[in-house]
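We give the entry.
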Amino acid sequence: MNYFKKILQFAIPYRKYGFLNIFFNILYALFSALSFAALIPMLDVLFKPEQKVYKEPVYTGFSGLKDYLQEYINYRVTAYSGDDDMKGLILVVGLVLVLFLFKNVFNYLAMFFITFLRNGVLKDIRNNMYKKIVDLPISFFSEKRKGDVIARITSDVLEIQHSFLSVLELIVREPLTILFTILIMFGISTKLTIFVFVFIPIAGMIISRIGKSLKKKSDRVQREQGEFLSIVEETLGGLRVIKAFNSESRFYQTFKNSTTRFFKFSNSLLNRQNLASPTGEFLGILVIGVLLWFGGKMVLVDKTLDASSFIAYMGLAYNILTPAKAISKASYGVKKGNAAAERVLEILETDNPIKDSATAITKDSFSDSLQLQNITFKYENDNVLQNFNLEVKKGQTVALVGQSGSGKSTLANLVTRFYDVNEGEICIDGANIKDITKKSLRGLMGLVTQDSILFNDTVKNNIGLGKENASLEEIQEAAKIANAHDFIMELPKGYDTNIGDSGNKLSGGQKQRLSIARAVLKNPPIMILDEATSALDTESERLVQDALEKMMHNRTSIVIAHRLSTIQNADSIVVLKKGKIIEQGTHRELLKADKTYKKLVAMQNMG
């Protein structure tokens, strides 16, 4: 129930639709009960034509309300039809039809307004989830598979709509339909209604026992769906490798195993859920059967109930079955929806450890230096960096070199605050980056990574990510600096060419130059290059290196380098090993020192 309350918070902006739904549901419930009660005068006209009332009855109080209403309708039918019984029959049939018409019109209006609430809640939950996904730190997604997150924002949210939000339709309508129907049933026969109520709790207990395991079963289904969506996502991302290594059958087997588990879990869940309807219906018919026996006795033997009232009473009793079944089905829905809501709320309520402090300042400029002071950081157990110190002065190019796993890329992640340091602090112009808003901190930095991360959009929009509302002239200027303008103009639609998923229509060098153009357009004072040329061929590397040098001119740069030939002009080269600085100096100084750096250069030259 806790999850239900939390999901209902999303309904607050749409409460006017909720109130309109409640209003029309009240009218629906009232007319639903009245439409069956109106059968009594119709049956009287059919089976007791001799019971005509020529004198208007007198109202004697609430206790005689039922008899008064019955006699008053008979009086009106008699007055209208005179001696023509068919005229009276047409009148009461018309009355029944009008009541049923109003019942269905109010039902439609109730559903019409709740639609806006349901879909509005669905939209807002998805928007909030997407906003949260974008806001959460990168570390969150190293623990969660992408497919699982996709399953939560698609099928789990949809499950909430089918389960929790469908309950909103029933929460007023069905209980009120039952209430109004029971009031009229009491009006017809108190004794018979009390007898019915002995059986209802027994039926309720049986139905509730079926629903108890639904949440657990539903949770397994949702998790398995996340699992096979992850496999699909990974397959599409690595299709080239899968085909190259003839691994199609292995991935198919993994996917098939997951869908087989999903098949079993879904069958188990749906079969348990499907049991609700036939069980409820059988128990309902059982109650009707007992009613026929007990009520028939009252009509035929005791003579305490007339036949037309009993037939209408049976209609009313059956009228309770539909909403009662809907309520039992909804209770299953809530149990099933609980699992989906739990998974959705897990993301929505995840606390973001990397957030702006209450006193965070906005920093728009970089004037002195970037300092890393006594930094210690670990991803899980082992320290990647330990008591690390580095200063990058304005206008300097500092290169970080070392073997894989020495902590180079980790430094880029820490400076941009994708992760927070465990100990020590990183300062820009003396201000701790934790005291600067994330937006303004990242506004000071441009990032070019080894993997060119591009989007399924036009060249113009991919470069334009670097600056909001950038003009085409600005985009073209950035592309020229990045040595990208010439190849862009050769594309079928130039800057309006769609580059495909992850930019797959372009070569590695072209993709990298677009990434550089994006960073150039942003024009940040600090540039971070994370192995920006390591994945390129010689010609592409030359073009990209030339673009990088143009971009880094008069700019503060941190270069994480794999190819040492690209950083010989750096103001300072920092050699890392297992998270510690083992050498530092210019290219010439380090060669003269004849230590680790010289060995790395020699190895690459041999290669």
